[in-house]
Amino acid sequence: MRFIESRPFAATSLLSLATLVLLGLRATAATHPRYGGTLRVEVHAASVSLDPREWQAGSLESATNQKMAELVFERLVALDNYGRFQPALATEWSHDGSNKRWRFLIRAGVKFSDGAALGAEDVVAALHPLLPATAQISASGNAIVIQSSVPAPDLLEQLASGRYFVYRALASGVLVGTGPFVLGEVPISGGPGAERNPGSSRSQTSGARSSPGAGGHLYFRASEEAWSGRPFLDGIDVTLGVPPLRAMFDVQLGKADLIELVPELVPRARQANLRVWSSEPITMYGLRFDDTQVAASDVRLREAFSLSLDRGTMANVLLQKQAEPAAALLPQWLSGYAFLFGVDTNLERAKELRRALPANEAAGAAPLRLRVDPAGDLGKLLGERVAVNARQAAILVELIARPVPRAGAATTAPSDSPAGVHLFAWHYSSLSPRAELDTLFAAYNLTEPSAVSAANTDHEQLYARERRVLEDRRVLPLIVEAEFVGLGASVRDWMPRRWGEWHLEEVWLELPEPAAADSRNTGTSAVEALPQPRPVAPGAKP
Questions:
Q1: 3-state DSSP call for residue 520?
Q2: Labelling 261: which of 93, 286, 377, 528 has CA 20 to 30 A away?
Q3: Phi, psi of 297 (to 5 degrees)
Q4: Contact 455, 150 (CB under 8 A)
């Protein structure tokens, strides 16, 4: 029996759904989807890895990696914006009464981009290195079984998000997938705008490189054999390492169709009448304390530090109201209880606590050192604001700039000065609040009492776990920010997920009508020129 379940964070009223359907029908009647063209995408990341085994949990880089991987790979199940689980590479699933044993039936007739048929053994090989240590996976005919040593009622949320893609590793190390696109080579004419019309010549390859490298382009061509149907686009040309301001100018000038927008440029983009989309808050910026400095190990100093922080100014001034103050580790849309935590600033209480501490703690001779770990201007601005707030409470903070790699250097040498506090960024990738909390705790060595059941998915228990960690103040959330995307005028059917998945297989481009003379020269009849239904395999996604 297939389970189609709903989750509260994605619930939508029937009235809203009816309105969306009516608007969708009206838009469809006005303009039909068309095949052809290349979507020109610009991203900030200078390099991308398509190997889920290499991704670092919570990193900003993993967000771009996941978006590119979604073009090539697929998961067993998917979750739509209404909280309903949908079949993908698995057509049915079931579990026992204890939620420890799960069985997934693998879709028949699916092929990888190299022509090999998808089998249960391929799913086992792909997911085995990605699953937690508490889970074992095995093949059983045309099905796979995941046996967990602890109850896993949230397994579907985990498999529908994050790095849980199904892929096939070739002998050369190249990964191939079953997705709507195949990673190929940039067309010979090269660059954004090289392929605006269908039928343009392009070189093709069936492989998927796991680490494309820094700079340049990634080109994804449409897969003609995708089980879910051919995407409308002929290809997607991704330009890497584009500065935010230049990307905004490119989409305004028609040189790009889809760009990543940084929060500080969103008001400017909207004033220029640029189409802007925003996700739910999917990135948190916060502080974590390190015992490499004695002062950072004093809970009283950490409390004074916390009370001095003006999160409202960070969100409303530094980010021009394009972020929200954060007091919780998980956002409201994911946990459902973030509103229970407060974000009060009490500078007088912070000063009082500071006066009660030894004079040599975070004093002029040995200030508390703050290192900004994420690259980019936002991290630097937040670090400077944190230092100003702390100094207002008589806590001296020395900001350590993030080392800038030299040209040609393979790695960046760490700072010589140990830091007592780090400003970090955490990208939410799992749709399971329990799994996300576990990953974050493990990443920053946040210990919990041995009596705590980490397998419990009850919201009250999750809230209690998060509250215990926050009360120790070894981690201080600052802000949560959404992801922003700028869209060109020709982009149609942009239907992403609220948590940041782009779903470019549904996008099409409203291209200029071909000249009548071209139609006569090619011998195309009027009937043949009409848009045809998108081919979809039996049982595939509509």
A1: helix
A2: 286
A3: -85, -5
A4: yes
The owner of tokens 């051919």 is: 230
Confidence of residue 16 (pLDDT cuts 50, 70, 90): very low
Helices 299-308, 347-355: crossing angle, 10 deg rounding: 150
CA dist 490 to 23, 475, 511, 522, Å? 19, 44, 7, 25
Q: How far apart are CA 89 and CA 187, in angstroms?
A: 31
**252-256 long-range CB contacts below 8 Å, 24 or more apart?**
254/488, 254/489, 255/40, 255/192, 255/193, 256/40, 256/41, 256/42, 256/192, 256/488
Q: Identify whether the C-beta of residue 102 lies closer than 8 Å to the C-beta of residue 159.
A: no
pLDDT tens track for 510-524: 977 665 444 444 444
- The C-alpha atoms of residue 469 and residue 513 are separated, in whole angstroms, by 59
Cβ count near 19 (within 10 Å) = 11
Look over the chain and give the mean of its residue pLDDT values, rounded to a whole number: 83
**One-letter amino acid identity for 250?**
D
pLDDT in tens, 68-99: 999 999 999 999 888 899 999 999 999 999 99
Place of tokens 């004074």: 304
Torsions phi, psi of 283, nearest 5?
Answer: -135, 130
Task: Dig out the tokens for 518 from the structure.
Answer: 């071209």
Beta 90-95 vs 101-106: how paired, if at all? antiparallel
Beta bridge partners of 222: 181
Give residue-wise pLDDT tens across range 24-55. 444 444 478 899 999 999 999 999 999 999 99
Pairing of strands 275-289, 475-487: antiparallel
User: 423 forms bridges with which residues in the sheet?
Assistant: 287, 372
In the predicted model, is pLDDT for residue 536 greater than 60?
A: no
What's the rounded Cα separation, in Å, for the pair 179 and 68?
Answer: 11
Q: Which of 19-28, 101-110, 423-432 has the lowest mean pLDDT?
A: 19-28
- What is the rounded distance in angstroms from the CA atom of residue 412 to the CA atom of residue 262? 25
376 φ/ψ sector (left φ>0, alpha ψ -120 to 50, else beta): left
β partners of residue 492: 508
User: Which strand (E) or helix (H) includes residue 347?
Assistant: helix 347-355
> 504 near 39, Cβ under 8 Å?
yes
* Residue 147, both tokens: 């046996």
Whether this prediction's pTM lies above 0.70 is answered by yes
388: CB partners within 8 A, 6+ apart: none
Amino acid at 263: P
The amino acid that residue 227 corresponds to is: W
Identify the band that residue 455 occupies on the pLDDT scale cut at 50, 70 and 90: low
CB 423 within 8 A of CB 284: no
Q: How far is CA 59 from CA 45, 347, 414, 534, in A?
A: 12, 32, 18, 37
CB neighbour burial string for 450-459, b if at least 16 within 10 angstroms, e if fewer: eeeeebbbee
Distance CA 169, CA 171 (A): 7
CA–CA separation, 476 vs 31, rounded Å?
49
Closest by CA to 220, choosing from 195, 193, 167, 183, is 183
Specify whether the CB–CB gap between 177 and 74 falls below 8 A: yes
